[in-house]
Amino acid sequence: MSIQFPPALRAGQRVALVSPARKISAAELAPAIETLTAWGLEVVLGESIAGDHHQFAGDDTLRRRDFQQQLDDPSIRAILCARGGYGTARIVDGLDFTGFSAHPKWVAGFSDITVLNTHLLALGHASIHGVMPVLFHQAGGEMALESLRRALFGEAAQLIEAPAHPLNRPGTATGALVGGNLSLLHTITSTASQASFAGRILFLEDLDEYLYHIDRMMLHLHRSGQLAGLAGLVVGHFSDMRDNTIPFGTTTAEIIDSYARLYDFPVAYGFPIGHEAENVALVVGQTVRLAVDGSGALLN
pTM to 2 decimals? Predict the structure, then answer.
């Protein structure tokens, strides 16, 4: 399947901020709105930004309606998901991407937004896995923010590097990027939002999970055959991992390695992707080259 890439943004165009998952306020987004305006963009706040329904940015109907409106509005040239949390999977099946497919636009976010990243890839469209507006100005996040700007405006992507890691498997691979949050990739298996991993470079990250959950999800990717055809594996941040009173006994990297070692694709750990300030934007669906050797790993 060929992948469609939306047109690069230009100064003067309109972008929408929406929240398809957890609730947020316009006040929390004020610094990001200033930044986007400084980039020359006109910011439109979706209905969900003011939504409030328990943990969610409005009930499912409101969040779905808001996202659909931004998909269908030809004047909106990018949709930036304001934050993650939980809830995107609850609305994705009710979205109609017919108009979007005729006139693609950038959709950007990460974490819970993995659902949209992979759903769009399954439909043949690229999107951006990158820092969200609520996190635009976190300390140490300058590289993440600049990489998002470059991706949106179609500027050349920077070379992404990771240091040497004892569990790296050397080699080179070329393939389209697929992936995101491990918990969400597990959740959407066997749904319309599942994108094929075959021949692609999978990237993974996660936050606030028990180690045995990581093992269970990696086991599922292995048993369901999703790891078998990978071209390569890139491992990002696994932040704030938890353990039980009786320890699981292995680290996150060791858990992932126990399944990756069953295959012969190159593997690299420690990439700046995920729930840390250094969260470099990746274009999901873009063909990249992964090179891993004794000195570390490169992705470009």
Answer: 0.98
